[in-house]
Amino acid sequence: MSFQNPVFIPGPTNMPEAVRQACYMPTIDHRSPTFGKILHPCLDGVRKVLKSDSAKIFIFPSTGTGGWETALSNSLNSGDKVLAARNGMFSHRWIDMCQRHGLNVTVVETPWGQGLPADKYEAILTADTNHEIKVVLATHNETATGVKSDIAAVRRALDAAGHPALLFVDGVSSIASMDFRFDEWGVDIAVTGSQKGFMLPAGLAILGFSDKAVATSRTATLPRTFFDIADMQKGYDANAFPYTPPVGLMNGLKLSLDMLLDEGLENVIARHHRIAEGVRIAVAAWGLELCAASPDLYSDTVSAIRTPEGFNATDIVTHAANTYDVAFGVGLGEVAGKVFRIGHLGSLTDVMMLSGLATAEMCMVDLGLDIKLGSGVAAAQEYYRTNPATAIKIAA
Amino acid sequence: MSFQNPVFIPGPTNMPEAVRQACYMPTIDHRSPTFGKILHPCLDGVRKVLKSDSAKIFIFPSTGTGGWETALSNSLNSGDKVLAARNGMFSHRWIDMCQRHGLNVTVVETPWGQGLPADKYEAILTADTNHEIKVVLATHNETATGVKSDIAAVRRALDAAGHPALLFVDGVSSIASMDFRFDEWGVDIAVTGSQKGFMLPAGLAILGFSDKAVATSRTATLPRTFFDIADMQKGYDANAFPYTPPVGLMNGLKLSLDMLLDEGLENVIARHHRIAEGVRIAVAAWGLELCAASPDLYSDTVSAIRTPEGFNATDIVTHAANTYDVAFGVGLGEVAGKVFRIGHLGSLTDVMMLSGLATAEMCMVDLGLDIKLGSGVAAAQEYYRTNPATAIKIAA
Amino acid sequence: MSFQNPVFIPGPTNMPEAVRQACYMPTIDHRSPTFGKILHPCLDGVRKVLKSDSAKIFIFPSTGTGGWETALSNSLNSGDKVLAARNGMFSHRWIDMCQRHGLNVTVVETPWGQGLPADKYEAILTADTNHEIKVVLATHNETATGVKSDIAAVRRALDAAGHPALLFVDGVSSIASMDFRFDEWGVDIAVTGSQKGFMLPAGLAILGFSDKAVATSRTATLPRTFFDIADMQKGYDANAFPYTPPVGLMNGLKLSLDMLLDEGLENVIARHHRIAEGVRIAVAAWGLELCAASPDLYSDTVSAIRTPEGFNATDIVTHAANTYDVAFGVGLGEVAGKVFRIGHLGSLTDVMMLSGLATAEMCMVDLGLDIKLGSGVAAAQEYYRTNPATAIKIAA
Amino acid sequence: MSFQNPVFIPGPTNMPEAVRQACYMPTIDHRSPTFGKILHPCLDGVRKVLKSDSAKIFIFPSTGTGGWETALSNSLNSGDKVLAARNGMFSHRWIDMCQRHGLNVTVVETPWGQGLPADKYEAILTADTNHEIKVVLATHNETATGVKSDIAAVRRALDAAGHPALLFVDGVSSIASMDFRFDEWGVDIAVTGSQKGFMLPAGLAILGFSDKAVATSRTATLPRTFFDIADMQKGYDANAFPYTPPVGLMNGLKLSLDMLLDEGLENVIARHHRIAEGVRIAVAAWGLELCAASPDLYSDTVSAIRTPEGFNATDIVTHAANTYDVAFGVGLGEVAGKVFRIGHLGSLTDVMMLSGLATAEMCMVDLGLDIKLGSGVAAAQEYYRTNPATAIKIAA
């Protein structure tokens, strides 16, 4: 644990010093008014980051997976129908969770590397004339494949079908990094976590609920206590949690939100896009291809890079860790061994990113791939220097 | 948030500087072998603290409440029968959770201030000749009333009845502070959290499962994913979690375990007892009584102190916060307004405790109670100085 | 090093969490403009704390002792005459430094426990018709005896004698804690350090120079480079130091100054006075006496407490450290073994102070002194609760 | 102050997390035995780093400049003769300090970019038949020019001349990074600071004295108090300082020494050499030259890189700070505007260094220099990957 080099995994991200210090807080009485001064700014700030005026925000001491479970258990009944597409490991896991909770999932199998098929959603929803489908799941950014999907198109599919199903969006690896519009897209539940765009340690599930979703929760019968939003809301109304809150992490979230909103969400999005573009240009310079099938699908938070046939992409990740003390992400599930992933979200500069690209180059050459040292770096350098950041730096 | 005075709440506790620093850790790759070097010592250390040779340990990014839910959802089926006693707010909440998860709870109503009625448990279990009761719940230390119960007696009740029900123990505010014997007492699931005896921030649910409990989990049908121990075990076997683990908190837990085990569990227990005795002697000097009905029930982690009729005990807590920037605990539920609580667990010295007692005295006098300033302090001083600590200091 | 209990030494003080975090800063380029944004607010803030409109402020990576040497070496020539009174260990050491630097010191021997004899200063200065005395030294607060001297009276002595000597004041243990008026008292050089009222670690010598002192420095010939104020000023003018500056400590000083000035200097002074009064009332309740001869001399930052004849006061300090892990100060020089000292400056609340008093009581009883446990605590409690703080808390 | 990118200045260096945390220590009583447990390991560890069996080690709350003054003022008398060579800004400053302290310096003017002229030293010493020269100054590593000098050759010059002068070595930017041999080279006083190879914040002057230097100090008459080694030694003998010590910084030094000695000094040296070689190979790939005149002079802690005629090298440093938030060093004195400097010492990996090289390339291209993006990076990558580190990582 030398902590010298940045990490290049798709979360947890590198953390700003000030955010880390805010998390590192001595004990306060979580039942005192002081906690309310941390809690409410967090709720308000998350709402702004979701671009919502009215979403109810819930924060649980948990992770994104707990957030998925919160969404399901507060809105559904055993046996309810859910529509979802599987185009990567994280959409797969949410589907799996549905099935384990006794839900009836219509799965649209989608090639890994493709986005969510809004057209197929529309067809299925249109055919569901009895409106048996209660919820549509949508993974905004497939962290396994580096594929961004078009949530606005999913909303259009629902609207075109005149279907009342709720729209649940997994924004774990997109929210606070990429464009996300809770109100405009008609999202009913958005799920994210602390350890991605919010640049915090893992430990918080963060959700936004539409009024419709909150209303639905009142009659949902899947068992829940820890993840119950009614208990949580009752706690918030008294400046509290229904159990001991993760005070330090929320103190960090409060600061992180201040930083993101001070920078401006559009600047945050532009910053992530700029860093990501440099990575993609480097990948092209290496003669490699992304897992994402087309540019409209490219994620600005993570790139999954295909390596040549017969080469085990996971070796790059292992070699980078062992030889250079640098962390990249392995391929998961269907693309295990076929891709390695570079995370490029959170607290990350062009300068830091160049060191990650340089490391990837050394690893690939070390492992016998036909890559020219410095080629990707040079391409990214040219992009970064000619596309100056208006806000490349996260103030701390 | 001046952080100058210690807190005297029954958790989260004051944190040792070194533990806080260990939590405050830069990002590492949680899929790298480095994480295994944090994870496995945590599992091994918790097992030792539970005084178990073979318990399977599970740690979730959650709280004690999530730990309760883990226990229930991994062992029970909807409609299953559970036996529990209600003698305070926390036993009440676990019963409430059972009911919300569709369990059929036989509740033994017990006066707040009393311990768990092992005799009544035995009668009910003996009468349950069909062994329909699947689980017996036992709150080892009622944080609301400062009452410790006799878990060995509950085990004897089960044994005397020849009953195969599983024994689940809430040790949230006892484990790592008071005597706890997983193996000897035949505990099947023990539940605790990070923010009490482990002296960490809230954010971890920590559980031990007996082999029998693990076996039962294989057929339990209450829905669960986030809290599923099979997924978690599969993760551990690969040095990982099934989702992003709370790395910093676990790094803190690793250090906290080292500190506790280096000090020696018996010394840890003696240290808590010594601090608690000083508090109780001060309470007696004030002419006040504890909520706990008799000395065998006195908790060594929290004292709930009854104030005179007609006096709102909560005023002490509010006044202490507003006037002296000191945190005590309010009374909850049935004893709201009737007691205030002094937490005396975790990283706390006699010297720190004396400042808490001195503050309580000032508050009581300020609010018109007939207390002599310095009386409780003097009594505690005499106890502390004539009962020297062999291990009063937590090494940092 | 458990860091659990507060320290009660006359500096370094307990540190506010936020100040400590500000010191704990990653490396920046100290030659970049960023450093100027730390440096200049420090200079401006110190000037305000000195209550000066025009003093030139100098900060060296050193200690108060280095500050003394800075004062002497930037203003004097070998053989120059200096007037000083010796009434404690710290005034003694400054005199000793003068002698080692070849200065000719007229020493007014003054009983330890007395303040500076302004009348004798006046007589000597009046007799010095040739104005051979170049500098008058005045220790504002004798940390060894807990004696505060009347600097305004020393200024009046100079003025009454019509003497042009420079007035140098050691304010190490008074500035930022007790009333100090650079301009009003006509101070020419004030010396302090980081580890007292500024609540920082040791490591900074902090000085204010009057225009007259700066002018004198131009011709002073005592050798100096590290402590040369002309080099330092040239550095400041370029946002720099003449060598590598202690960036983190200065970042902490910047925050400390913000906190002190936000609280208001009069509130800071009142806060220290209130805490000190509680200590003195406890001492009286113990039946003991202060080293300081009369109330007008009582220091609000440190109390030196005389113990009975035949008792070694240092034993209290040793016993407190060994038995209770609490730090008090020993007696120094003439009063070694005769007094022990309680520091009550910096980040310290009434609640913390009560734990110090309770500890002192236990120690004294443990060591056989005829002290009633709780007696001093009760007296201080009564004072603190009936003299509520308007600003007892340091915001963090 | 985003603290995201590493710094590439020749000190203060990037700091290991654990060292930073060790510095960030709550207040302890510096007069307690606890301080001795920090102090003595520091003294012992520094001695080992100096490769000395018997040097007396002194640590002052100061900087390298204060260390120079300590060396001079503890060994010389006004008017004493000193021999020194001026081959850069730091050797110049030490000479200047000598002159300001009334010493008579024979200065051997040496081109900036050249090492110390041992042959000229020998000639001068041989001619000094009366042994009027009391001290020979030698700057081991000229931080301004990136030039390492041959201290063993200086020692041979002294020996060849049969001259008894003391040998004082400025090792501020070499000790703990480059090969340094106090005993073997017959060094009498070695001077360094905390913020270079020790990877700490600035704030400590660290010196080693030979027995001969200690003996000389007893009769040296230059005035000194703060920097007096006899006072300091007396303090050490009582586990103390003669004034308030910088406890946190020394706690950090203790850890830093443990890390360096655990790694092994030869590994530390090899690690610095490897990082430096990568930089030099990149510089060659850019078609630029170092200020250091020949390979035997190349410093392993800092490289001063000459830019083409007519180009202001300082622009690179300003542009890097403003555009990329990266810190390099400017040219100083004679080489101001002609060189920019890359610091490559302390806590720095190959991966971090590559980001510095990539940034330098972007800056040079942005400013119109004829540099190929990626060219230096590629050269360094090839070097780093084919010269694997046996110990590239600093354990934390």
From TrEMBL, chains A, B, C, D:
Coiled coil stretches, renumbered: none
Domain Aminotransferase class V: 30-287
Keywords per UniProt: Aminotransferase, Pyridoxal phosphate, Transferase
A Pfam family reported for this protein in Swiss-Prot or TrEMBL: Aminotran_5
InterPro entries: Aminotrans_V_dom, Aminotrans_V_PyrdxlP_BS, AspGlyoxATase, PyrdxlP-dep_Trfase, PyrdxlP-dep_Trfase_major, PyrdxlP-dep_Trfase_small, SP_NH2Trfase/AEP_transaminase
Swiss-Prot/TrEMBL cofactor(s): pyridoxal 5'-phosphate
Domain of life per record: Bacteria
Entry's Gene Ontology molecular function annotations: transaminase activity
Family statement drawn from the similarity comment of this UniProt entry: Belongs to the class-V pyridoxal-phosphate-dependent aminotransferase family.
Name used for this protein in its record: Aminotransferase class V-fold PLP-dependent enzyme
